[in-house]
Amino acid sequence: MHRRTLLHLGASLAAFPLLPDAAHADECGKPRTDLTRIDARVGTNHGHLFQVHLDDIKACVEKTYDLTGTAGHPHAITLTPDDFRKLGAGEILRAPCSREGGHIHRLLVRCAPAEEPPERVNVCQIQIGGKDDHELIIPAAHIADPQDRSYEVQGISPHGHGLRLTADHFRKLVAGEQLALRTAPSEGHSHVVFIRYARPAKAPEEATPPGKPTPPGPPASPSPAP
């Protein structure tokens, strides 16, 4: 056999075992191992319930969810195998439910780790004007390191808005001031965002652990003579 043919065959055999592993990351029914819970939300909710289970992601079969809950009227949404594949890969799915009673709800569902990473933990009290179900997360690291930063204000909504905070804004938050900032326009509108830093409460004084004897107090004063 020609030397070039042997080299080509050897390269093909060496590459072959890699193909299943490369496809596994995008395979339906096998979510990432670090994703162990489901975050499913209903925007502007009035009693609806959206429950997606990790077993649904693993089954990877088209499924329709009844969102009625305690609302007294139904809504539904159907997730496809492709939706489950994306969820298992860590993507966020945003979609509207069925229209009932003259309205719809925006929905968000994602696979999440057991504990959110620090960059997804908000340390500020935030109110966003309007009814677009937007969300803004400002993590502790941004408060501790004041510098100009840009944010995407999105949340459950299918569209987002840009928001710029300067280093001076962060210093004002730490000083206890409330910010009122306007987002960049999107979809022909913008929003006013109110931000206040939720300073963590001081830890209480350490109590005596259970089972540990209480330290003796000062000796009692002698009783006065009669």
TrEMBL record:
Annotated stretches, region: Disordered: 199-226
Source organism superkingdom: Bacteria
Keyword annotations of the record: Signal
Pro residues composition bias: residue spans: 210-226
Annotated signal sequence range: 1-25
Protein name as it appears in the record: Uncharacterized protein
